Amino acid sequence: MPSDHPSRIVCLTEETTETLYLLGEDQRIVGISGFTVRPARARKEKPKVSAFTSAKIDRICELQPDLVLGFSDLQADIAADLIRRGVDVHVFNHRDVAGILRMIRTLGGMVGCQARAEMLCDELTAGLDRIRAMAAQWTVRPRVYFEEWDEPLIAGSRWVSELVEIAGGGECFPQYAKHSLGKDRIIADPREVIAAAPDLILGSWCGKKFRPEIVRGRAGWDAVPAVAANELHEIKSPIILQPGPAALTDGVQAIHRIIEAWQQRRISACGAGFSRPLL
């Protein structure tokens, strides 16, 4: 392993862990987030040293990392504590699809495998292009409301909004999706969702199980097309809320399958046939 690249890396969030595994550089990882589920083997192979907004600073230092990788302002205090201990820290702050690809390229450069990182980005981009092309065949796009949290209601992030569009949906709340921070995506008045009349409601409650019965029970929401048609679907948090490879593969594919099934039901209701197989 080249001595001029980090060889002992702690990943405070899942997306960098998954990326390093995909790049074949997992031997460099010496610590991971306790929320990591991708890849599954990482939980068996690597010590868990952090949550999301908290971390075992002493334990991280004991691992003698030459690089700690974090994400967003929510880990700023962890980063500051580690920096005061003399640890090299890089905090990514990407919030859209282009940013996810940029993160992968940057991380590849950090560990000396730029060419493999470029290949991975090419593969991910090609996959998105295939889904975009399939979705382009539909003449009707369902209105989609993505709910990231339920109390208060928080609309989906920018990368989620972009993936909804790529998968063939129409984003109900682009005005919220453009904001990076969850506090700026709070839907203060639930009647906004009623007025938006989504055809599909996708829920991913930050690791908490999405409960359609709670959505159905909200005052006045029985008038929402998605609720009336029982089009309430969970997208598992690890494949969509982490801004990494998972969102660009399993995440967008899950959204696409839901939209495709909606298209099949819509066309069937109109008496037409639709035979293209699911992704």
What is this entry, summarized?
By secondary structure, the protein is of the alpha/beta class. Helix content is about 45%, strand content about 15%. The protein is globular, with a radius of gyration of 20 Å.
Give an overview in words.
- This protein has 279 residues and is an alpha/beta fold.
- The chain is 43% helix and 14% strand.
- The chain has twelve helices and ten strands.
- Strands 3-2-1-4-5 form a five-stranded parallel β-sheet, with helices on both faces. Strands 6, 7, 8, 9 and 10 form a five-stranded mixed β-sheet that branches.
- α5 packs antiparallel against α6 (114-135), α6 (114-135) runs parallel beside α12 and α7 crosses α12.
- The chain is globular.
- The model is unreliable at 272-279 (pLDDT under 50).
What's the helix and strand layout?
Elements: E1 9-11, H1 14-22, E2 29-33, H2 40-45, E3 48-50, H3 57-62, E4 67-71, H4 76-84, E5 89-92, H5 97-110, H6 114-135, E6 143-150, E7 153-155, H7 158-167, E8 170-171, H8 174-177, H9 191-196, E9 200-203, H10 212-216, H11 225-228, E10 232-234, H12 245-269
Parallel strand pairs: 1-2, 1-4, 2-3, 4-5, 6-8, 6-9, 9-10
Antiparallel strand pairs: 6-7
Helix pairs in contact: 5-6, 6-12, 7-12
